[in-house]
Design a protein that fits this description.
Chain lengths: 330, 330
DNA sequence: GTGAAAGCGCTAACAA
DNA sequence: TTGTTAGCGCTTTCAC
């Protein structure tokens, strides 16, 4: 195994100098720096993670706490995961997987044994039960999601309220006066996930503000449910010319059902989705995307800032981005 | 921070004794063991991961290399992930996430800096490009999947060939003489994923062996593709009374299309699926499940065996399990 | 059955 | 700008 001593000998410097070249914790003259770098390259040196963690009391590992609840959109989770890993690597950190079932005890263990420097916790609910543990540990942590009380925490989320409003604004500006809202499954609303309620709130108040008629309904991830909901919406809102869909799992079915009801999309009913870009792209639907990449990256950046002793804001809301797509579908 | 010295002092023993209680690397009298355990509990001691890694040259971390290819079934991936994490925890190990995009260099880095003791690599293809790196590193590793050449490796997989055959056997024993096969998307077959081909091979040779008429077709994850494929199958195999489906993404559509073609399921066409149990359960379909939990667990067990210096077999195939479900759907 | 002590490879004072 | 050195907290040999 190649150690820092080998590199130091090879470069003709002291071990500490090699360390300083690596960490940047003290200026090193350009000449030595280059020589050390060359030796590192040549010998294929990689600092021993454990030794480094022991000496610096920094593991350079982020714990990523996954959601394992029913109803989460797996593709979105995966996009978060990859974006967190990518962002972490940019800061020379690795990512340890913490499954939800490890629970509070797991978080405590990881913190105490110094396996992770901090955590990014995904899919945090309004009244998440893991929050007390996080506060108790007092470790750096960033939450993806939006708990009811953000005091003393650091949370990152899409501004879902703005997203809901954005859809209405866009449609109202196109002249629509009667807009439906097809949301997530009722379980998601019951569960206090926050993002669903906030989108709906943004939608509703924007509709109110603009004097647009509106009705909102949840839809279960089954064809028959979507069929029923679309039917109900058309009945409740007979002059409905636009529909905002915040339920990527059933988006395809919504389009089918509208057609089955004799409505052309977008000619009779304009559909705006709140969903990943790729899906909207495929269906050629105007949409507000869930910027998983940006959220994950921001979360990691905030965590790194905390690790460097900086204060971070309790809540960061990323602005929604509406992409207009006008092509015909299929 | 609570260290081993604190525990030793509190229990009135030497630090090494505490270590031996923890690792079991040397017998400790029952009395001391209990006392030490109590002190550990009382003080809330967790051995420092980095220190342990440095002293023992074992990080107690498994690298889990994720697939990021198009066409992977995310729910299945997640089940693997959770089962690997759960199994790892049972061996007092944690799991580090390695995304595919980190590539060979990433694997090399993690091995050299001793961040991980070994790897579990998911979704390994027949001619996977990561295999050379793995061999080069000579580190403990277990592959989930089935590369063309398993020599010198340790692979775990479902016996897909047996799975394909099992479906035919089951249906033939029920008297079916003409059986269709609706497989994964053509991209999956083109990509040499192995599992898809082997299932098909098992299906085909079992049909041949039993003198059953059969036709196999791939299906893309779009409704129109499924519609076309089901139509073609019914045309090519006019007396088809059974269908084996190896494509969980479109399974629901297959049932719809069969009904749209005027075939009752299972009265006119019996459908057997190769898919996760939960899905088959929901659709009340006889099925062979992908035992993600068992595969993940076995992979971890084999990895742990390797870490303990044991030899592990190059290929472990888990037997398929066919669950008969006879209820009506919906 | 237990203790003392020498590292593991690195970082970060302290010293020059 | 660089070198020397004392730990970081644990494991493990050696000694009893």
């Amino acid at each position: 195994m190649v150690t820092i001593v080998d590199v130091a000998r090879h470069a003709g410097v002291a071990p500490s100098t090699v360390s300083y070249v690596l960490t940047g914790n003290r200026p090193v003259s350009a000449g030595t720096r280059v020589r050390v770098r060359e030796s590192i390259q040549l010998l294929g040196y990689h600092p021993h993670a454990g030794a480094r963690a022991l000496a610096s009391s920094r593991s350079n590992v982020i714990g990523l706490v996954l959601p394992l609840r029913e109803g989460v959109q797996l593709p979105v989770v995966m996009r978060f995961v990859t974006s967190v890993v990518t962002a972490a690597r940019r800061h020379d950190m690795d990512v340890l997987l913490v499954t939800a079932d490890q629970g509070a005890a797991g978080l405590r263990r990881l913190a105490h044994c110094a396996r992770v420097d901090g955590c990014v916790m995904m899919d945090v609910g309004l009244d998440d039960e893991r929050l007390p543990v996080l506060r108790e540990l007092g470790r750096p942590a960033v939450l993806l999601g939006h708990p009811a009380a953000v005091k003393g925490l650091t949370c990152v989320d899409l501004d879902f309220e703005a997203a809901g409003a954005r859809c209405v604004d866009h449609l109202a500006e196109l002249g629509h006066r009667s807009i439906g809202f097809l949301g997530a499954s009722s379980a998601v609303y019951a569960r206090n996930t926050g993002f669903a309620q906030r989108t709906l709130a943004g939608f509703s108040s924007a509709a109110m503000r603009r004097g647009v008629a509106s009705t909102a309904m949840p839809a279960e991830p089954r064809y028959d449910s979507v069929q029923a909901v679309v039917g109900t919406l058309l009945r409740e809102l007979p002059r409905m010319t636009a529909l905002v869909v915040h339920n990527e799992a059933v988006l395809g079915w919504v389009l089918e059902c509208l057609r089955a009801e004799g409505r052309r999309v977008p000619d009779d009913v304009a559909v705006v989705a709140i969903c990943p870009d790729e899906l909207a792209e495929r269906l050629r639907l105007t949409s507000v995307q869930l910027p998983a990449e940006a959220l994950g990256r921001r979360a990691v950046e905030l965590l790194v800032a905390q690790l460097n002793g900086q204060q971070t804001p309790p809540l960061t809301l990323l602005e929604p981005n509406l992409s207009v797509r006008t092509g015909p579908h299929r």
